[in-house]
Structures are given as structure tokens and as C-alpha cells.
Amino acid sequence: MTDTLTDLIASAAALIVGLAAGWAVHSAFARRKRAREQLFFGLPDGSECVLVTHRDSTSAHWSIPRHDALALLSIASVVENCGAHPEVAPHDTGLQGFGARTEFCIGDPTAHRRLAAHIANLLPGVTVHPGDDPGMERGTFTIAGTHYRPEPGAVEHVLLARLTAGDDSRPVFLAAGQRPVTHRAAVRHLVRNRTRFARKYGSQGSFCLLLKVVNSQSYGPDLVELVADVTKPATSSAGPRAAAKAATKAAAKDD
Questions:
Q1: Is 8 a member of any domain?
Q2: How many domains, the chain?
Q3: Cβ contacts of 111 within 8 Å, gap of 6 or more
Q4: Residue 2 pLDDT exceeds 80
Q5: Model confidence over 170-190: pLDDT tens digits?
Q6: What spatial distance separates the first Cα and last Cα of the chain, rounded to whole Å?
Q7: Quick one: pLDDT at residue 94?
Q8: What is the tens place of the pLDDT at every residue in 61-88?
Q9: Is the dihedral of CA 174, 177, 182, 183 positive or negative?
Q10: 72 assigned to some structural domain
Q11: Between helices 180-192 and 66-82, what is the axis angle to 10°?
């Protein structure tokens, strides 16, 4: 065997070993990334989750509004990657309490019953104005005394939250926006940054982010800016006066 042939065989062997090592490292990295995402979303292999959305009021049959449907498609890719099984449910259908399975709740909190219930119970420091308060546009958020009013097509806000009820419970993800395009923007922000969020918040961490969608009239859901991490004020009690006002409104609706 000549020296040249020996060198070629050694080089080929080294290349094969390098490729095998690279593949092993890549596979291990992919497995760790997938496992981190499964923990973050509460979606182990074979688990179930529910995607709760609006009904399209303009349709005679049950259908999902365009932007919400596109948001659900983004979530579906994550669910599939985690090896879980999704169920789509309308917001006004009776569902079990949260925590038993991962939930993605998307929509306008002034019209989405389950989303409104989650905000009232899990984000008591957030007030979403229905539009019947003097000087308050429909969908205005009030957090820690600051009002975030919508400017349709120019500046609109959306809350993106991950919340858990306890150590053993599955998370509920909220995308509560002032217009349908903001729901889609929030979901895209979650999907694009899921690796960073998983590293930052872990498998049990809760967060609530206030995002701003800029110039949606021209750019749709593409321009998203973080206004603030409002986890602390949003998850704190809104105070006795606000609580009393909310209770009065709830009683009036029941009557």
C-alpha cells in the first residue's frame, strides 16, 4: 500500500468520524432544544392541548377569523414539533378549568369569554375597558394606572402571557389584543422567541408582556415592540375600588 493511498484512507476515515461526531452533537442539541420547548409549553410527547378562539360573527357557520386562524397555524407548528395533539374550541363552549392541559387562548378580551375570565382571575391588575366608560376607547388596557389606548392601524397593544396555577399544572398562554392583527403578532412573537423565553422563564415561570404593534395598516403583524414586562403589576390585585367596580359590572350583567 502506497503512502498516498494510506493518506487517502486516513483522511476518509477522519472525515467519516468527523461527520458522525457532528451529527451526534447536532442530534443531541436538537433533542435538548425540543425537550426545553416541551417543558416550556407543557407539551410532552402524546399530550393534549386546547386552542381557544373566537367565532367569526360574520359567518352563518362556526368559523375562525382570518388573523386568529393564521395565529393558530403558527401554534400548530409548535404543537406538532413537541409531539402533542391540539383541539380547537370556540370561546363560548364550556371547558374545564385550566391546568390539566396546556391552553392557548387567543382573541379580543372584550368579546372572548374565556380570555376575559382568565384575565380577571390570573391578571387582576389588568383592566380591559369595554368602551362604555367615558373617555375610554373599547379595548383600552389600564395597567398600574397607565392607559394604553388603541390607535387603529397606527399603534395597537396586545398582552402576551404565560401563566400557571401551580408546580404540577400545565400553562395557559394568553394573546389578548386590541385588534385581530395584534393576536397574530403576539403569537408570532412567542413562536419566534420561544427558545429565548424557555431559557429565561424555564418550565414553571410566569410572565406577562405588553407588546406594541406599529403601523399594522402598512406592515400587518410584522413590527412588534416590547413596551414593558408587566408581570408584577398585572398579577397583583387591582385594588379594592377596581375590584368593587368589577364586581358591580359583573352583577349587572348577570341581572
A1: no
A2: 1
A3: 54
A4: no
A5: 999 999 999 889 999 999 999
A6: 96
A7: 64
A8: 666 778 888 888 899 989 999 999 998 8
A9: positive
A10: yes
A11: 20
